[in-house]
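RETRY 2/3 - previous attempt timed out on the joint model. Re-submitting the same 137-residue input unchanged.
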Amino acid sequence: MKIIIINGPNLNLLGKREPAIYGGKTFDSYFEELKTKYSSLELESYQSNVEGELINKIQEVGFSYDGIVLNAAAYTHTSVGIGDAVKAVSTPVVEVHISNTHNRESFRHTSYIASGAKGVVLGFGLKSYDLAIASFL
Ligand code: DQA
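RETRY 2/3 succeeded.
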């Protein structure tokens, strides 16, 4: 089973970025833990700060992979294009957020991804990614 985690803008700074909200661990070190835990899966990760590159990646994998775990980060709240890409592909997408976006600023309460997603996992720290992967099994 082939699953990809796609991370949007500023998630390359996990570990350094607002640790009180996003924690002190880098994504790379957490991803190693996930690969060990889910060693029977083909697990990949991709990150970009660029909206169009995220759309390109969703299109590239979205007809052949078994699952996409998508944290579109700030683009969640702004990007009709990423929302449309999620609806355009046949691979199911689970939307993920590290923080509970619903107890933060009101602009974070809107998601252009959620209506096209299979489900949404948010607020469990990095564990949100783990729970999203588990949802495909
Ligand atoms: C985030 C929440 C977004 O509102 C924010 O812009 C992010 C990270 C999260 O994982 O909690 O960059 O997607």
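The pocket of DQA is lined by residues 10, 71, 73-74, 76, 97-99, 101, 108 (CB under 6 Å). Closing ticket.
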